[in-house]
Design goal:
The strands form four sheets. Strands 8, 10, 11, 14 and 15 form a five-stranded mixed beta sheet that branches. This protein is mainly beta and 190 residues long. Helices cover 3% and strands 49% of the residues. Strand 5 and strand 6 form a beta hairpin. The two termini are 52 Å apart.
């Protein structure tokens, strides 16, 4: 019985060398004790019996060989010019469960207008607002008074489904102008 070693992916055809040296074997799709393992490599030295390797030495090491998608952060940013052109903006986007995403909208509190601090979320079991902040413009030298900044909201996708986020840019006091600008974002969570 020949001693074998080689590099191959589990389930794929390979040329197993017959030189008796240890080689790295990718077993990322292999089943070990009935459980699929992802991101493993094994060094195997053994003998070949009826087209199977009977290992005399096995060393398994965890490595990142998976192709899994990781949660990522998506963002939407709209400027004052965008809202000057179209006062009521609606958009749609897709995210995955576990993703967080950022909505950044132009804001100029020196005009008396501001966005709703808490966004209206149609289905809070699908999406959750996790943060909101006002960011003043920064530059050297400092920008002139009245320069717009941004309001930034962070949301997290909790489960599959569809939810709509609504916000309005208004003067918050009684008798102030309402819905000068509106923003609506429909999110499909996969």
């Amino acid at each position: 019985m020949p001693v074998v070693g080689g590099i191959y992916e589990y389930g794929a055809e390979s040329d197993i060398g017959r030189d008796g040296e240890s080689r790295t074997v990718d077993v990322s799709d292999a089943e070990i004790e009935g459980e699929p393992e992802v991101g493993l490599q094994a060094k195997i030295k053994g003998i070949e019996v009826d087209d199977h390797i009977v290992a005399s030495e096995v060393e398994i090491e965890a490595v990142d060989t998976s192709q899994e998608e990781t949660a990522e952060q998506v963002s939407i940013e709209l400027s004052c010019d965008d809202f000057m052109a179209v006062q009521d903006i609606s958009q749609e986007m897709e995210v995955y469960v576990g993703d967080s995403f950022i909505v950044t909208l132009c804001s100029n509190p020196t005009t008396g207008f501001q966005w709703s601090e808490t966004a209206q979320v149609s289905d809070q079991t699908v999406l959750e607002q996790v943060d909101h902040k006002l960011v003043s413009p920064e530059s050297e030298p400092p920008p002139p008074p009245g320069t717009p900044g941004q309001e930034i909201w962070t949301f997290e996708a909790l489960k599959t489904g569809t939810s709509t986020i609504s916000m309005e840019y208004s003067q918050p006091w009684e008798g102030g102008e309402k819905e000068e600008w509106t923003f609506e974002l429909t999110i499909v969570v996969k």
